[in-house]
Structures
1.
Amino acid sequence: MDDRVGEVLSSSTVACTAQAPASELAPDLGAFVVTVSPPEALGVVTAVRVAGFDSHRRPLAYGLPPDELERQQPQLRELLVTEFDLVLLGACELDGWRQRLPARPPRLHSFVRLATAAEVRTITAQPDWLRTLAAAEPRDDVLAAAIRAAAAARPGDRQHLVQTGRALARLWADDYERLQALLRRVQP
């Protein structure tokens, strides 16, 4: 599978953690991704982290620029692992994607791929997905990144952005400052 960006390491009906095959293949914060084995689930990346492969040994600073470090210490790439977390927003059912959690967690070791633009448009057609992400941590930055990704799947569709803005205004009607800060983060 050439389009995989990860493999599920832990899973629940609301969230997953996956490991990227390489650091440069990890999806961006706010990216929409799909777990590809039954049950198929669609989610948004809420965190990406790189750490040492062995949790008992922390990586050390070498004081070298990245190119030189790669040349002098090529084995370091094998000692690091990149993981990402995702919050699930939808499940693939017989008639297509639905904005609801899967009945069962995605299978461990199933692959994760980036969602297609059509899948993103389907799962974000109604603004209900914003409420799910608004509860995720770190809330506002993830939500802003996901809104930008959803807008990228709809080039030139200003109406969708207006609908999203109205839904956010309803969510944070009592917190104008937070709403304004979030809307500033959404702007490209």
2.
Amino acid sequence: MQVEDTPIEGLKILTPRRFGDARGFFSESWNSRVMAEHGLDYTFVQDNHSLSEAPGTLRGLHCQVNPDAQAKLVRCGHGRLFDVAVDIRRGSPTYGQWFGAELSFENGRQLMIPAGFLHGFVTREPNTEIVYKCTGFYAPEADRSVRYDDPAIGIDWGLDGAEPVLSHKDAEAPVLADLDNNFEYGGA
């Protein structure tokens, strides 16, 4: 497993090794012993899987606040997507900054998103599937959203002027400055 740091503390890109032959490949997408050696000590309690039929489908930006916060391990099961995490830990030197990575079935990359981050993605191909593990159960009362196009964050979704396919919830989400957020930075 290759573990890469990103410019935002705690946010990691994981690339599992693939062992292939004429039948296809085998890949170990998570191993708690190996990940603990890299300082990633998570216990996942829920797996989620979603399908977005149209390219340009944008889901996010979402999180759950404390005490129901979730860390997420995100990968693309089919197709290709651009995955984004935004640091919303108050006091963090990278508060409000975003990082994005292309995740695809072909590249096998995963994004390990700690609690204290917003998460969202936009699909690049038809019938794109995202699969992700969560460290907390879904708690509707803790669910929060921020606008995907909040100018204070300034995410470049790579839409080239096209309008994304959005849910009503995402289209009506507030900006980060108006988010009811109880995350505090506890890093170096």
3.
Amino acid sequence: MDSDPDDDSELFRAAIGKVRRLDERPAPPGRPRPRPRARMAEQDEQAAREEFRHGLETLPVQAGDVLAYRQDALPARAWQRLRRGEISAQEELDLHGLDARTAEGLLRRFLADARDHGLGCVRVIHGKGRGSEDIGRSGVPVLKNLVDGMLRQRAGVLAFHSAPPAQGGTGAVLVLLAPRRRG
């Protein structure tokens, strides 16, 4: 084999001498992948918030109105017991005197925590809306409408009904929660 003195690759091979191939090693591990986010759940939550805020002006609940909601899957007997106040609340949240934004955040966390801890029934005290700070520009009780709208949109809420007079009457609501699905 004639070697060309101007060929750099030949000069290089002559300078380094005999070569042996190294054993191949696996590539080092890459950066860990980020944890997956529940984007659809986040989008659903955002859409529910927007829908709720728009619904506040269109379906106002008045101070003395009874709040009531029931999913079709709830047996009639359980609904009757809830309406009569025969199901005891395991935890309670009092929203008196709070602004709507703070109350909304607290109620969301309260309901999530209640389901996470396996509570079946909770009481939310929203007030009757007769106090000046509880009445919005349109003359309707702000917190009562906020609670009504949010509870109707929560997937984990099976039913709710205004409490009996001894438990707060139309100023509080008993909420029946679905058990949290595992897995």
4.
Amino acid sequence: MSEALIVGIVRQALEMAVLVSAPMLAAGLIAGVAVSVFQTVTSIQDNVLAFIPRAAAIFVAFALTFPWMLRLVSGFAEALIRRLPDLVR
């Protein structure tokens, strides 16, 4: 197995990880900014107020995008398993 092939597989795996985590990270970022703006405007500095909406947004994003993420990761794993005989040589 050549080094270029290994680097290509690792690159695809990292791209997959970034692509799968992006919706949850974006939801957490948007919720965090919204809560920060709300806290700044109202002068409320409570850690629980900052955590709960962010956690809820991440959970909702995960629940909504889970079927898409599962198809994406399953397709990647299936393609990797299909290429396994070529990778062993």
